[in-house]
Amino acid sequence: MAEVAAGVGPDALHAQLRVAMVAGEASGDLLAALLLQGARAHWSQLHGVGIGGPQMQAEGFEAWWPSERLAVHGYSLEVFKRVAGLLRIRRQLGTRLLAQRPDVFIGVDAPDFNLGLERRLRAGGIPTVHFVCPSIWAWRPERVHAIRAAADHVLCLFPFEPALLAEHGIAATFVGHPLANAIADDVSMGQARTALGLAHDAPVLALLPGSRSKEIDYLLPRFLAAAAQLRRQWPNLQLVLPAVAAQAERIARLIQVQPLQPPVRILAGQSHQALAACDVTLIASGTATLEAALFKKPMVISYAMHPLSAWLMRRKQLQPWVGLPNILLREQIVPELLQDAATPEALAAEVDRWLHAATERDARWQTLRCRFGDLHRSLRADTAQAAAQAIGQVLGR
């Protein structure tokens, strides 16, 4: 690799960059793909290898394993059964990267997998960057020690995180949230409905039960039962459900168990189109809730998992909320229904309130759009430039 001085901007670097990356699940795949797009503006001959999903592969990424192999859910026996396989993949990947020696390794989210791998690669002399600060401000604050041992630099999505990490001696840069740049301030609902073939004069509910198998198993039956109740109050309610390819068959099977007429429209991906088109979304807690906020959409956040997993997570939780919009705005601006509280009746009641608010464009709806607009602006930055600059500094060391 070419010699560079510390702090030199990316434009002064060679145009080639051999980068290894690991991104788990659909949200990590999306963030990593956006990072690859931006990095290629500074390193025109960028070549990426590692673990990634379809959106990364569309950017020319060479996936040795698909990102869905990393998707896990909770802490209970359902996860422990897969630990040996995940550890084997991580060991094999680490050995392969230490032999091939990429210029830099970028772990995208998936901290339980990536931090251990980063620590091994860093000890072997490979520079390491972690993209997406683990939410030590929300739960598991002890993870800060693992971050300090693993990452040469952390790329942060939220503006308060670098100062928090600096208190623990960890170099970090706020790079903005790529989604805040990718999603426009005001997206046309009408155009999205036309693109999806939806009626413009009937309400739309987007069902987003998550991208992991267990999330879908726990949440989708409740979402469908809630939708059936809502159809009795809103007979013309249109239902859309964006599905990642790996989960499309599972989703179709669960819908067959609880058929609705008219049926739920399953979309091949297209989560952004679904969010742009909808009046309200019934959504699993996770990155998708932030996407919904950036589209300025009312939502009902839900989550359910094995009771043991839920108990363990509650013990480590530092915030009174679980949904990113509520955490970032420091108040429960959208409802959260978790575990036993996530009954079809309760979910339907909260969605019904939002449907009325959206139809009437009332004060609650207006306040939500205003607060989500402020959040959108606070997360916007030149992510590609900031991330490339930080990576260039790491390479210069």
TrEMBL record:
Q: GO cellular-component terms in the record?
A: membrane
Source species, domain of life: Bacteria
GO terms assigned for molecular function: lipid-A-disaccharide synthase activity; phospholipid binding
Top-rank EC class of the record's enzyme: transferase
- Cite the entry's keywords alphabetically: Glycosyltransferase, Lipid A biosynthesis, Lipid biosynthesis, Lipid metabolism, Transferase
Reaction catalyzed: a lipid X + a UDP-2-N,3-O-bis[(3R)-3-hydroxyacyl]-alpha-D-glucosamine = a lipid A disaccharide + UDP + H(+)
Where does the sequence pass through the membrane?
Answer: none
What Enzyme Commission number(s) apply to this enzyme? 2.4.1.182
> Which GO BP terms, alphabetically?
lipid A biosynthetic process
Pathway per the UniProt entry: Bacterial outer membrane biogenesis; LPS lipid A biosynthesis
**Protein role:** Condensation of UDP-2,3-diacylglucosamine and 2,3-diacylglucosamine-1-phosphate to form lipid A disaccharide, a precursor of lipid A, a phosphorylated glycolipid that anchors the lipopolysaccharide to the outer membrane of the cell.
Name the protein family: Belongs to the LpxB family.
Q: Which NCBIfam families match?
A: lpxB
Q: What is this protein called?
A: Lipid-A-disaccharide synthase
**Species name:** Lampropedia cohaerens
